[in-house]
């Protein structure tokens, strides 16, 4: 974002001091990209507030939709994938509406594969796995969560791996694999403790109590 703002500053100065106005469309695109990133960040913070209060934030969805539109306008498919993921996450987590969420999550997964963004892909696959689990498609859910987890391991995203292992614990329980569930719980606890992810540790203990 700093580089984009420096670009805008330079184009502004060329216009004001040199009378070179051809760069103004580039300035608009740079500002659109900055605005898109800002909308994603605002939406993410509102999502955290939902997790705390369980009250739907009025502007969260609108922020993510606007971000997706702006990323599309400037041709940033990587950013668009992230915004689409958040739209899907909103529908799944905030509104408990998987039929609406899944197409957005699928688009996010496809675009993040195309653009080589393993982090966004790991999030999209995780939430597609959650949707499959809720639809009682345990085999598909396991495949999706395991692929997401493998990506997160390559990124050294330790807290994210632990979070995914919670889902895999519940899948192991649903598939009557108690030993696998215990093994996953042990690893998840180690990873969550190492990364200081106290909320995930609470989720692990809740899952362990179901084994």
List the helices and strands and how they pair.
Blueprint: H1 2-18, H2 24-53, H3 60-74, H4 77-94, H5 98-115, H6 118-134, H7 138-154, H8 158-174, H9 178-195, H10 198-208
Describe the structure.
- The chain is mostly helical.
- It has one domain: Alpha Horseshoe (Serine Threonine Protein Phosphatase 5, Tetratricopeptide repeat), CATH 1.25.40.
- Helix content is 84%, strand content 0%.
- It has 10 helices and no strands.
- It has helices at 2-18, 24-53, 60-74, 77-94, 98-115, 118-134, 138-154, 158-174, 178-195, 198-208.
- Helix 5 (98-115) runs antiparallel to helix 6 (118-134), helix 8 runs antiparallel to helix 9 (178-195) and helix 9 runs antiparallel to helix 10 (198-208).
- The longest helix has 30 residues, at 24-53.
- The model has no long low-confidence stretch (mean pLDDT 97).
What is the level-2 CATH architecture name? Alpha Horseshoe
Question: Per CATH, what is the topology?
Answer: Serine Threonine Protein Phosphatase 5, Tetratricopeptide repeat
Query: What is the domain total for the residues?
Result: 1
Span between N and C termini?
47 Å
Order of helices and strands: HHHHHHHHHH
Structural class: mainly alpha
**Number of helices in the DSSP assignment:** 10
């Amino acid at each position: 974002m700093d580089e984009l703002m420096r670009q805008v500053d330079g184009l502004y100065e060329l216009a004001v001091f040199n009378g070179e106005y051809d760069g103004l469309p580039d300035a608009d695109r740079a500002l659109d990209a900055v605005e898109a990133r800002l909308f994603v960040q605002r939406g993410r913070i509102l999502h955290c507030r939902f997790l705390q209060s369980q009250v739907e934030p009025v502007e969260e969805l609108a922020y993510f939709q606007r971000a997706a539109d702006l990323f599309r306008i400037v041709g940033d498919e990587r950013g668009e994938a992230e915004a689409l993921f958040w739209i899907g996450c909103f529908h799944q987590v905030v509104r408990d509406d998987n039929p609406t969420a899944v197409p957005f999550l699928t688009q996010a997964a496809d675009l993040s594969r195309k653009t080589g963004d393993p982090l966004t892909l790991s999030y999209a696959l995780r939430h597609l796995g959650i949707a499959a689990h809720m639809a009682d498609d345990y085999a598909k859910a396991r495949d999706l969560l395991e692929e997401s987890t493998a990506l997160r391991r390559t990124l050294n995203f330790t807290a994210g791996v632990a979070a995914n292992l919670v889902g895999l614990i519940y899948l192991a329980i649903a598939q009557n694999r108690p030993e696998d569930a215990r093994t996953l719980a042990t690893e998840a606890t180690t990873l969550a403790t190492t990364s200081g992810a106290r909320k995930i540790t609470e989720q692990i203990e809740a899952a362990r109590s179901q084994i």
